[in-house]
What we know:
The protein is an alpha/beta fold. It is built from nine helices and eight strands. The chain has one domain: TIM Barrel (Alpha-Beta Barrel), CATH 3.20.20.10. An eight-stranded parallel β-sheet has the order 7-6-5-4-3-2-1-8. Helix 4 (about 85-95) links the parallel strand 3 and strand 4. Helix 4 (about 85-95) packs across helix 5. The longest helix has 18 residues, at about 5-20. The radius of gyration is 17 Å and the shape is globular.
Amino acid sequence: MSTIADNILQVSSRxxxxxxxxxxxxxxxxxxxxxxxxxxxxxxxxxxxxxxxFGENYLQEALGKQxxxxxxxxxxxxxxxxxxxxxxxxxxxxxxxHSVDRLKIAQRLSEQxxxxxxxxxxxxxxxxxxxxxxxxxxxxxxxxxAKAISELPRLKLRGLMAIPEPTEDRAAQDAAFAxxxxxxxxxxxxxxxxxxxxxxxxxxxxxxxxxxxxxGTALFGARDYAQP
Length: 228
């Protein structure tokens, strides 16, 4: 059975090949380990193999892992839907939030970010495929939302995040990720981050400018949602 370290090597090789194919610097793409539903021991194993950035979707689960792994210098990213009553804990315990999709949430994160911490890195989640089941602001609402968030104190707007509708059609993958890249370029803001691409489509995302790829299954194996 593959170990997490083996899986990290395989994913890193895929990232390297994809950056070379896109004529990009391999260091321009960072690997975010999506560790939701995985035990703290799995994150500790991934840390030992070189990973530092971990993405969590469920706040209470993440806070428990942060306590268990407090001896490690991990960088925590919140990547799930955000309820208003969760913003204070997210503002206090994470370095990045990839899933901001409305101004109210951004305002609460800004107000609740502790003054002794660096500004909270923010990505706006865009529903680029228009799926009813997906979170994210609409492309039409993005310019006003991005401008408003960029002016909030205690936050640093870094870029966009998207989860396009899954497909095995590479051309369709490319088109969806290219749309996100175009949206970001059209904002005329000093942004440097595109959080897009997962285990099944990271090559396409990197070809279209991804700077973070969010990888779970390819690193940790299939998730058991009966064990949150």
